[in-house]
Amino acid sequence: MRYQESKSLPESYIKPSECCFTLKWFHAIIILVKNFDGMKLFLIGGMEDLNFNYCYKITYESGETYDRRRNELSVEISKEDYKKIITGVLQERPIEQIEGISDVIDKMTENVEFADRFMNKNGSLRKTPLKKKRAISKLEFFIPEYEYRRLKKMKDPIETLERPVEHMTVYRNDGSSVTLTAENGRVSIVDSREKNVRHIIEADYFVSKIL
Questions:
Q1: What number is the average pLDDT over the span 104-126?
Q2: Contact, 145 vs 67, CB < 8 A?
Q3: Residue 188 class from Cβ within 10 Å (0-12 exposed, 13-18 middle, 19+ buried)?
Q4: In terms of pLDDT, which residue wins out, 200 or 89?
Q5: With contact defined as beta carbons under 8 Å apart, do 90 and 152 qualify?
Q6: How does DSSP assign 99-139, residue by residue?
Q7: Dihedral of alpha carbons 18, 22, 26, 32, sign
């Protein structure tokens, strides 16, 4: 995972029909932002980049197979490629067999090969990386279980992805601010007092906390 400092975001009013924000909730939102401890948070890269987190199962040419679904890697992909992936996953199709994402698969494979040099075959970390990458005969890719459950709960994941991005900035009296961005069924929270940190929370959970 990586952290990315937020870019300058335009201010706009978030329509109640999209994310249920109105002026009367500003105070509730600020209180919520100050009390992250009770939230389920994801610290990931900027939502504009569409960082795709994935895990994998690896088979070496020796025939040894290891399930690495506890090890998450990340790759930047386009929204169109993400739509293809989640459509295929929800149809129970293996990610590596989804058509039209060969470039994404290549990037994912490169990430695995690089990470594998820093790991023992059992998944534990090495003190020093391998000088030469291991020969891999097969890779199977998966989305993390928490992401699969989130997608399954959505009425229409593709429709959620196609909603316009919405931004709102709330200013404190001292001039600092909190910027909220609603996109892809999540709310991104950036506090100007926190450098290089972006908090990501599911939109439904966020709205449930301010109602």
A1: 92
A2: no
A3: buried
A4: 89
A5: yes
A6: TT-HHHHHHHHHHHHHHHTTB-TTSPBPSS--SSPPPEEEE
A7: negative
Residue 52's nearest CA partner among 13, 95, 94, 91 is 95
- Nearest to residue 82, comparing CAs of 69, 97, 96, 101? 101
Q: What is the pTM of this model?
A: 0.64
State the residue for tokens 């987190």.
53
Contacts (Cβ under 8 Å, ≥6 apart) of 112: 56, 58, 73, 136, 139
CB 113 within 8 A of CB 75: no
Which residue shows structure tokens 């990340």? 74
Query: Would you state the structure tokens that stand for residue 207, as one six-digit string?
Result: 């709205």
